Amino acid sequence: FDFYPDVREILLALHEAEIPIALASSTWAPELCATCISNVTDRGRKLIRIMKMDEKRTLGDIVDYQELITSQKFEHFRRIRDASGYSYEQMIFIDDEKHNIDDVWIVCGE
To answer: Directed axis angle between helix 98-108 and helix 73-84, to 10°?
Structure first.
């Protein structure tokens, strides 16, 4: 498992520019995903912690907001808006699944 090409460099550039980064995932196991992002357990490194951003940081080190719930993307986006204080107009949503983009656009794009 790895990022799409150029994603690592883009995320690092956003982080270095002090632009907050949010991660949203629909999951049936939100607690497990949160552990993967933010902890190294006794059983070894979890998937997202292994995704090194550079020699010193992992994905969990550079993400400012995490929405790991069983929900549609517009609900993730709404919760990120509420937690961050940014308006929808100040946020960029990127997803590789068109139905997620459509869902967010219907709720947030007008």
So the answer is: 50
pLDDT tens digits, one per residue of 67-100:
876 777 888 888 999 999 999 889 888 888 888 8
Report CA dihedral (12, 15, 19, 23) to the nearest 10 degrees.
80
* C-beta separation of 7 from 71 below 8 A: no
Residue 107 has pLDDT above 70, yes or no: yes
